[in-house]
Design brief:
286 residues, alpha/beta, Rossmann fold, 7-stranded mixed sheet, 11 helices, 7 strands, 51% helix
Length: 286
């Protein structure tokens, strides 16, 4: 079986995040806000610094950059046009219209050389089919001395998430075939490999970044209860649900079954302790 090409992987990733975009701000963004703000804190942008939110999703890092550097100093980009639309809407709602959000491939940035003092990428670098290419693009658009920061997750397998995945597969067996597709399996290998801090740090150095260091943080993601947790996880699984061709009645039945199943877990099970790592490097002086 032929290995998926980078173009095929990008198309799969784009479709995945396009599908999840409509529910992202409601169901997923609340749990990504703390890592986004910590990343920006660790990057220490100054007022007036030009900043980029790379693989921006709905623009959480862009919002944190805007508070520190100024709204008109921030740009954001993502390969998913639906996420870009969601980011523009969220930024507009927050009075941050001057933030420039564009559809863009991280491996082929359309920004000029020496454009940014700070770049932040939240849980995106391990989604790039050719991360070294993307990192070299990051170095190109950084000014000498400019800093970039990437977040990657630590291990995560709480019992409530494990049971959600098991029960979803029982309810929708077709998802098993979708998850076993060559493209999804290849993406899983990329995500796992380049989500390791040591591997990412090595790639950053290979791309010409220096003073690479790792910071680790913990926070509690509070999903409140079974319905809130189920809605968040189903939002993230939207692409697979569409591929399984479930109608509205089937979706409602699946959700009800999952809520009933996970309702047996105690309240404490929905407060999930998570670790994430921030990898920071800078472009050396020319």
């Amino acid at each position: 079986m032929a290995r998926p090409t980078p173009s095929e992987l990008k198309a799969w990733i784009r479709d995945d995040y396009d599908a999840a975009a409509s529910g992202w701000e409601t169901h997923m963004a609340p749990y990504f806000r703390v890592p986004a703000e910590r990343l920006v804190d660790d990057l220490e942008p100054a007022r007036g610094d030009r900043c980029l939110d790379l693989a921006c999703g709905t623009g959480l890092i862009a919002r944190a950059f805007a508070a520190r550097a100024g709204t008109d100093r921030v740009a954001a980009c993502d390969i998913s046009s639906e996420q870009v639309d969601a980011a523009r809407s969220a930024l507009r709602a927050g009075g941050l219209d001057p933030v420039d959000v564009q559809v863009m491939d991280a491996e082929r940035l359309r920004y000029p050389d020496l454009r940014f003092e700070r770049i932040g990428c939240g849980f995106g670098v391990n989604h790039f089919p050719r991360p070294l290419t993307a990192l070299r693009e990051v170095r190109r658009v950084l000014v000498p001395g400019g800093r970039v920061g990437f977040t990657v997750w630590g291990p995560f397998s709480p019992a409530v998430r494990v049971r959600f995945d098991e029960r979803l597969l029982e309810l929708i067996p077709a998802i098993g075939a979708i998850a076993g597709s060559p493209v999804e399996m290849a993406f899983g290998r990329i995500s796992e490999r380049y989500g390791r801090p040591a591997t990412l740090a090595g790639l950053m150095r290979q791309a010409g970044l220096v003073d690479v260091r790792q910071l680790s943080h913990r926070f509690a993601a509070d999903y409140v209860d079974a319905p809130t947790f189920v809605d968040a996880m189903l939002s993230r699984a939207e692409r697979d649900l569409r591929a399984a061709r479930l109608d509205a009645a089937d979706r409602a039945a699946v959700r009800a079954a999952l809520v009933t199943e996970l309702g047996a877990f105690p309240r404490s099970a929905f407060v999930v302790e998570r670790t994430f790592h921030v990898l920071i490097g800078r472009r050396p002086p020319d």
